[in-house]
Description:
Elements: E1 12-16, E2 26-27, H1 36-39, E3 48-50, E4 64-67, E5 70-79, E6 82-92, E7 98-104, H2 114-117, E8 123-126, E9 142-144, E10 148-153, E11 159-163, E12 169-173, E13 176-180, E14 188-191, E15 200-205, E16 211-213, H3 214-217, E17 224-230, E18 233-238, E19 242-244, E20 249-255, H4 257-261, E21 273-277, E22 283-286, E23 289-293, E24 296-297, E25 308-314, E26 319-325, H5 337-346, E27 351-355, E28 363-367, E29 370-373, E30 387-393
Amino acid sequence: MPSRRTAVAGASLLLLAVGAAPAPVSAAPSPLSSTASSTASSTAPSEVRRAAAAAEPLRLVNGQMLARGVSLHALGYADDRGRLTGQVITVNLSATSVGVENTSTHRVAQRATLDRLSGGAVAAVNGDFFDVAGTGAPRGFGISRSRGVLHGPDAGWNHAFFMTRTGRVGIGPLDLQARLAEFPTVRVSGVNSPTVADHSVGVYNTRWGPVVDAAALTGGDRDVRTAVISRGRVVLNAPTNRRSMPPDGFVLVARGDAASQLLAMPYGRVVTPRAAVAGNPAVAVGGSGLLAKDGVVVNRSNTTLAPRTSIAYDRHANRLFLIVVDGRSSRSRGATHYEMATIATRIGAEDALNLDGGGSTTMLAHVAGRLRLANRPSDGGMRAIPNGIALVPRG
């Protein structure tokens, strides 16, 4: 097995002092509060000590227990680029009282702050990248235990964290298998995805939201056609951008050659979309790509410093890690992709996925009876995001 003792280049590690409390967390506003973003704040970790040598492996010590099998830790180090601070939540999946869930709003094309998404959770972090300047929808996969496949593309943005109903964990690519049953030659490029690939059809159902705007989904492409299907049959088919979502159906958005194929679906024609994900995962949250695989760093980009979030997994010990690093401040410079990958492997993970970062980087932990902000988001408060990964009490 590859060594996990690889040092972060030039780093002198800072570890939480033995006997010290873990990183302080601040109260997140109640999910019922209307001032979530403006009132959130955090107190930075203060009790750290310099490690004896840069080669010493990064360790997480004296974590605060959040639930059985779940603990919160601080991490940090300093090098010639400055000081880095962050938080890690560890989950012993073999001996825990929590489950792992995709937490999101009831509409794919809608966002909310993480505390509003995760009320009742033991802990949570932000999830996938999203179409920040357009629809607000996540770019990758989303699967919920209770609601099934929420969204996903057939190609391009398909790396994800996922779990099966039997508890098997994976970090890697997922395969969307989507089609129109009566029109097998029409390519379906996504379900509730923020973009429709050229020469393909995007399928949008009631989970998307009340209105589908084809112009936003196709970058303003003029070679577009839309169709509305209600109770299994076409009720509208025309080159019209904005469509209201029927309560008992879905909307098709086609571009390029697929727009011509939509002409074969006249009023009254039966159209049945089918969508599944290979392996039938029960939970999935997408990310931009792998940071580490099989204990080896695979993203070696070591230039851009930013706040970052990742999820990582040690399959030999069946441990999950939720990792955030703060940035864009005097107390924490942020991390590169390479540093995030190295942190993950040094604390024991084989596989790690890059989640959304920047102003989206957020971690919540349930401490002293309340869900509290455990890091310091660079926006100054919690950003509205489309989804997250939550640890929720079982039963």
